[in-house]
Amino acid sequence: MLDKKKIFLFYFLCSFIFIYAEDNFSTNYKTLTINKKESENIIIEKEVFGKYEGITTLGLSRLENGIAFLECYYRIGEDNICLGISANTKLADETFLFLNTQKECGTKCRVYLGKPEEKQIFYAWEPSKEIITNNDKVKIEIITNKKKYVIFVKKDIKELEVTSDGFSKFKAIKGTENLPNLMSLKLWGFNY
Length: 192
Prior knowledge:
By secondary structure, this protein is α+β, with helices and mostly antiparallel strands. Helices cover 16% and strands 44% of the residues.
Protein backbone atom coordinates (compact mmCIF):
# COMPACT_ATOMS: atom_id res chain seq x y z
CA MET A 1 0.00 0.00 0.00
CA LEU A 2 1.26 3.49 -0.87
CA ASP A 3 2.16 5.67 2.03
CA LYS A 4 1.29 9.36 2.31
CA LYS A 5 4.84 10.50 1.46
CA LYS A 6 4.81 8.65 -1.87
CA ILE A 7 1.37 10.05 -2.74
CA PHE A 8 2.52 13.57 -1.84
CA LEU A 9 5.71 13.15 -3.91
CA PHE A 10 3.70 11.85 -6.87
CA TYR A 11 1.27 14.79 -6.56
CA PHE A 12 4.16 17.27 -6.30
CA LEU A 13 5.90 15.85 -9.40
CA CYS A 14 2.68 15.93 -11.43
CA SER A 15 2.03 19.54 -10.36
CA PHE A 16 5.60 20.53 -11.19
CA ILE A 17 5.41 18.93 -14.64
CA PHE A 18 2.07 20.65 -15.31
CA ILE A 19 3.39 24.07 -14.23
CA TYR A 20 6.64 23.55 -16.16
CA ALA A 21 4.70 22.57 -19.28
CA GLU A 22 2.42 25.60 -18.93
CA ASP A 23 5.41 27.95 -18.62
CA ASN A 24 7.70 26.47 -21.25
CA PHE A 25 5.38 25.07 -23.87
CA SER A 26 2.84 27.81 -24.26
CA THR A 27 -0.46 26.68 -25.66
CA ASN A 28 -2.06 28.65 -28.43
CA TYR A 29 -5.53 27.43 -27.69
CA LYS A 30 -8.15 27.81 -25.02
CA THR A 31 -10.50 25.19 -23.63
CA LEU A 32 -14.01 25.98 -22.45
CA THR A 33 -16.87 23.93 -21.05
CA ILE A 34 -20.18 25.16 -22.41
CA ASN A 35 -23.82 24.13 -22.19
CA LYS A 36 -24.72 21.75 -25.01
CA LYS A 37 -27.48 24.16 -26.12
CA GLU A 38 -25.07 27.08 -26.63
CA SER A 39 -23.89 27.87 -30.14
CA GLU A 40 -20.24 27.00 -30.73
CA ASN A 41 -20.02 29.58 -33.54
CA ILE A 42 -21.16 32.47 -31.37
CA ILE A 43 -18.67 31.56 -28.63
CA ILE A 44 -15.78 31.00 -31.08
CA GLU A 45 -16.33 34.32 -32.82
CA LYS A 46 -16.64 36.26 -29.55
CA GLU A 47 -13.52 34.62 -28.09
CA VAL A 48 -11.33 34.79 -31.23
CA PHE A 49 -12.61 37.94 -33.00
CA GLY A 50 -14.09 39.85 -30.05
CA LYS A 51 -17.62 39.91 -31.47
CA TYR A 52 -20.16 37.74 -33.26
CA GLU A 53 -20.78 38.42 -36.95
CA GLY A 54 -21.98 35.03 -38.21
CA ILE A 55 -19.01 34.46 -40.51
CA THR A 56 -18.62 30.67 -40.25
CA THR A 57 -17.52 29.15 -43.56
CA LEU A 58 -18.25 25.50 -42.80
CA GLY A 59 -18.90 23.08 -39.97
CA LEU A 60 -17.70 19.49 -40.34
CA SER A 61 -18.99 16.88 -37.92
CA ARG A 62 -17.84 13.35 -37.21
CA LEU A 63 -18.50 10.62 -34.65
CA GLU A 64 -15.55 8.78 -33.08
CA ASN A 65 -15.87 6.20 -30.32
CA GLY A 66 -19.21 7.65 -29.19
CA ILE A 67 -17.90 11.23 -29.11
CA ALA A 68 -19.43 13.78 -31.49
CA PHE A 69 -16.95 16.32 -32.85
CA LEU A 70 -17.74 19.53 -34.73
CA GLU A 71 -14.95 21.45 -36.51
CA CYS A 72 -15.83 25.10 -37.24
CA TYR A 73 -14.01 26.76 -40.14
CA TYR A 74 -13.59 30.48 -40.83
CA ARG A 75 -12.07 32.49 -43.66
CA ILE A 76 -8.74 33.94 -42.48
CA GLY A 77 -7.11 35.90 -45.30
CA GLU A 78 -7.41 33.59 -48.28
CA ASP A 79 -7.61 30.34 -46.29
CA ASN A 80 -10.36 28.43 -44.49
CA ILE A 81 -8.95 27.52 -41.08
CA CYS A 82 -10.49 25.57 -38.20
CA LEU A 83 -10.86 27.96 -35.26
CA GLY A 84 -12.82 25.70 -32.95
CA ILE A 85 -13.58 22.07 -32.20
CA SER A 86 -16.40 20.97 -29.95
CA ALA A 87 -16.64 17.50 -28.42
CA ASN A 88 -19.48 15.91 -26.49
CA THR A 89 -21.32 12.67 -25.88
CA LYS A 90 -25.01 12.01 -26.25
CA LEU A 91 -25.49 11.68 -22.49
CA ALA A 92 -23.50 14.75 -21.41
CA ASP A 93 -25.13 18.11 -20.72
CA GLU A 94 -21.91 19.97 -21.46
CA THR A 95 -19.62 20.32 -24.45
CA PHE A 96 -15.87 20.81 -24.45
CA LEU A 97 -14.84 23.56 -26.85
CA PHE A 98 -11.24 23.95 -28.02
CA LEU A 99 -10.52 27.41 -29.44
CA ASN A 100 -7.72 28.13 -31.92
CA THR A 101 -7.05 31.56 -30.39
CA GLN A 102 -3.96 32.28 -32.51
CA LYS A 103 -5.72 31.37 -35.78
CA GLU A 104 -3.06 28.75 -36.51
CA CYS A 105 -3.15 26.58 -39.62
CA GLY A 106 -3.06 22.80 -39.13
CA THR A 107 -1.13 20.37 -41.32
CA LYS A 108 -4.19 18.45 -42.61
CA CYS A 109 -5.77 19.84 -45.77
CA ARG A 110 -9.24 18.83 -46.96
CA VAL A 111 -10.24 19.57 -50.56
CA TYR A 112 -13.83 19.38 -51.82
CA LEU A 113 -13.88 19.18 -55.61
CA GLY A 114 -16.70 20.88 -57.47
CA LYS A 115 -17.16 23.60 -54.85
CA PRO A 116 -16.48 27.31 -55.44
CA GLU A 117 -12.84 28.18 -54.75
CA GLU A 118 -13.54 29.89 -51.41
CA LYS A 119 -15.37 26.78 -50.15
CA GLN A 120 -13.02 24.18 -51.58
CA ILE A 121 -9.90 24.03 -49.39
CA PHE A 122 -9.96 23.68 -45.60
CA TYR A 123 -7.06 23.37 -43.13
CA ALA A 124 -7.90 21.22 -40.11
CA TRP A 125 -6.43 22.12 -36.70
CA GLU A 126 -6.11 20.16 -33.47
CA PRO A 127 -4.92 21.40 -30.07
CA SER A 128 -1.23 20.71 -29.36
CA LYS A 129 -0.62 19.39 -32.89
CA GLU A 130 1.90 20.67 -35.38
CA ILE A 131 0.96 23.82 -37.28
CA ILE A 132 2.00 25.43 -40.56
CA THR A 133 3.74 28.79 -40.38
CA ASN A 134 4.94 28.90 -44.00
CA ASN A 135 2.32 30.43 -46.29
CA ASP A 136 3.97 29.28 -49.54
CA LYS A 137 1.58 27.32 -51.74
CA VAL A 138 2.06 24.78 -54.51
CA LYS A 139 -0.10 23.89 -57.48
CA ILE A 140 -1.83 20.50 -57.47
CA GLU A 141 -3.78 19.09 -60.41
CA ILE A 142 -6.47 16.48 -59.84
CA ILE A 143 -7.70 14.82 -62.99
CA THR A 144 -11.02 12.97 -63.20
CA ASN A 145 -13.02 11.63 -66.12
CA LYS A 146 -15.09 14.84 -66.01
CA LYS A 147 -12.64 17.64 -65.32
CA LYS A 148 -9.13 18.73 -64.39
CA TYR A 149 -9.12 20.62 -61.08
CA VAL A 150 -6.28 23.01 -60.28
CA ILE A 151 -5.85 23.92 -56.62
CA PHE A 152 -3.16 25.67 -54.58
CA VAL A 153 -2.39 24.26 -51.14
CA LYS A 154 0.16 25.18 -48.49
CA LYS A 155 3.51 23.57 -49.21
CA ASP A 156 4.05 22.20 -45.68
CA ILE A 157 0.87 20.11 -45.37
CA LYS A 158 1.33 16.54 -44.13
CA GLU A 159 -2.09 15.10 -44.94
CA LEU A 160 -4.19 15.72 -48.03
CA GLU A 161 -7.77 14.48 -48.30
CA VAL A 162 -9.60 14.95 -51.61
CA THR A 163 -13.37 14.44 -51.74
CA SER A 164 -15.30 14.10 -54.99
CA ASP A 165 -18.99 14.34 -55.83
CA GLY A 166 -19.27 10.54 -55.98
CA PHE A 167 -19.83 10.43 -59.72
CA SER A 168 -16.34 11.19 -61.01
CA LYS A 169 -13.67 8.61 -61.72
CA PHE A 170 -10.20 9.41 -60.44
CA LYS A 171 -7.52 9.40 -63.14
CA ALA A 172 -4.41 11.15 -61.77
CA ILE A 173 -2.98 13.69 -59.36
CA LYS A 174 0.01 15.87 -60.23
CA GLY A 175 2.14 18.13 -58.08
CA THR A 176 2.26 16.13 -54.86
CA GLU A 177 6.03 15.77 -55.36
CA ASN A 178 6.19 19.49 -54.47
CA LEU A 179 4.77 18.78 -51.01
CA PRO A 180 7.95 17.74 -49.14
CA ASN A 181 6.18 16.83 -45.86
CA LEU A 182 3.21 14.95 -47.35
CA MET A 183 2.74 11.66 -45.50
CA SER A 184 -0.86 10.77 -46.35
CA LEU A 185 -3.10 11.16 -49.40
CA LYS A 186 -6.72 10.00 -49.17
CA LEU A 187 -9.28 10.02 -51.94
CA TRP A 188 -12.96 9.98 -50.91
CA GLY A 189 -16.14 9.70 -52.95
CA PHE A 190 -14.64 8.70 -56.27
CA ASN A 191 -16.43 6.17 -58.45
CA TYR A 192 -13.76 3.60 -59.35
